[in-house]
Amino acid sequence: MGYIGSHVSILLLEAGHDVAILDNLSNSSVVVLDRIKQITTRLPEFYNMDVRDTSNLELAFIKFHPDAVIHFAGLKAVGESVIDPLRYYEWNVMGSVVLLQVMNKYQVKKLVFSSSACVYGDVAEMPITEISCIAPTNPYGQTKAMIEQILADLVSSDQGWSVARLRYFNPAGAHISGLIGEDPNGIPNNLPPYISQVAVGKLDVLKIFGGDYPTPDGTGVRDYIHVMDLARGHLSALNYLSNESGLLTVNLGTGHGYSVLEMVKAFEIASGKKVPYRIAERRSGDVAISFADPSRAEQLLGWKASLGLNEMCRDQWHWQSKNPNGYRSSCAY
Ligand code: UFG
3-329 falls under which CATH superfamily? Predict the structure, then answer.
């Protein structure tokens, strides 16, 4: 029920699937359920629980009888993971092992896993393909790489498993309705919600982490992907797993990199608001450039991102301006 899970749930419900959401609400809100209902006219089942809680997880499996699991649960702030690595290993790695044990016990062997471009670390050659080296530069990325390895070992041990490892690049934007979007706890870590909170007046100024990278304008370059394109990628992966067993590993990105300053400019145009910024120190653990080669996802899944930077900024702004305080605001609907 977090940022990506909520958008995927909408597409699953619209495609006629029954959906149960399991979430400990550490970085999400139950209001999302109402919003999903407004968009799809359907209400997913909801279990307020932690993925590390074996007995409640088993109860949810017994009650809901899933055919497949999409595993989004995890902590995702790079900086925080450097300060508190044990928490990241416990939540992300242990949580995944518990989930896999329960799936194994109940013979549910189809899994789509939210991995991250973070597993690649500082890659010299762009674009990044799936065979680029796995060398994460921070504990968060390490947890994703470890879980990926666990999944590979599991698939080799038992041919009954079908697992997709989706390596997300940088999600941005929101559902076109403006009813759901990203609502991080506290100060956002990531660029898109930070920019939109500056534009809406919640934050004063964007600090750009580094103006001296070896990029055309000196600011970091990333592959921003519309969250609805990313969500569609999950449905394509699920579809693939219904016919194939084994391990699928694909990048989900657009193949285009944009700098922080290009993002700021595009957002100013989409919102009609000024986004004041200042250049600050580089953020530790950041790489200069990261963008995907998404061709494998197109070949294997028939999936390709279709929305561009303008749509991402438009939809991010629509969500933020309708919900200036995220799900805590009483919004105009
Ligand atoms: N940035 C700023 N100011 C901010 C926030 C970010 O200048 O306040 C810059 C960063 O330095 C970087 C770019 O904006 O150049 C993107 O930063 P994000 O924090 O939005 O994204 P990252 O690329 O660091 O990491 C994100 C997710 C990870 C994921 C990774 C995949 O946080 O979970 O993308 O590439 F693994």
Answer: NAD(P)-binding Rossmann-like Domain (3.40.50.720)
